[in-house]
Amino acid sequence: VELTTKKIRLDWEVTAEALEDNIEGAALEDHIVRLMTNAFGNDIEDLAINGTGDSDDGAFLGIMNGFVNRVKTEGDAHESVVTVSNGGWTPEVMQNIILAMPRKYRALKNNLKFYAGTDVFQGIVKNNGTLADAVAEAFAGQMPGSTQANRQSYLDGIGQTFGGARTTRVLGIEVQEVPYYPAGYIDLTFPANRVWGFQRDITVNREYVAKKDTIEYTVFVRFGIQWEEEDAIAFADAAADA
Description:
Elements lengths: L5 E10 H6 L5 H24 L16 H7 L4 E2 L11 H10 L2 H4 L6 E4 L1 H11 L2 H10 L7 H8 L11 E4 L2 E5 L7 E5 L4 E5 L4 E7 L4 E14 L6 E4 H4 L1
Parallel strand pairs: 2-10, 3-5
Antiparallel strand pairs: 1-9, 3-6, 4-5, 6-10, 7-9, 8-9
């Protein structure tokens, strides 16, 4: 797998007056560093997913071609054309995405994983149920489709892991919520199919500039992304197919 890395810079500065006048004092400096580096990490993830490599889409998204755009434009992945209204990601829709995957990869079904944006994930939970639904059906002898109350409880927050991306399972395949995925988009692939490469350690460079009486910070990163095998991807884009 060949990676082409991009060099990205984040810089900011803090004035001496800001450190002197705020209630945190000198501790404000560390606080801002944590905030900015966390934001930088989020930006890197957003770029890796949604970048287009096209300057017409803005200076940020134009930096590199991201995972989603490669899937949708390079022609090697397998699209399942779907019609979804009111979040109706039903078992039939999900099965069609699975069937769009070549048979040689479906044979390794236990290793496959769905990745879905927040809106798609919610539609999947609403229309496919959760582990709580399966347990309730087993004990109560209920027919499939009669566990709407459990599904709604999950959507309301019960049984979810606070603070992290949510997961569920549909048709025996795990579904991972990816908040940065675009609306209406979902793909099916192997977790190891996404390749990230970082060409240098991420370090925060600090310098006091006497003439400006400020502390300047600069962070550089060189990273690249690539799909190992786009033939092992099936996807659906309800927003584009609507």
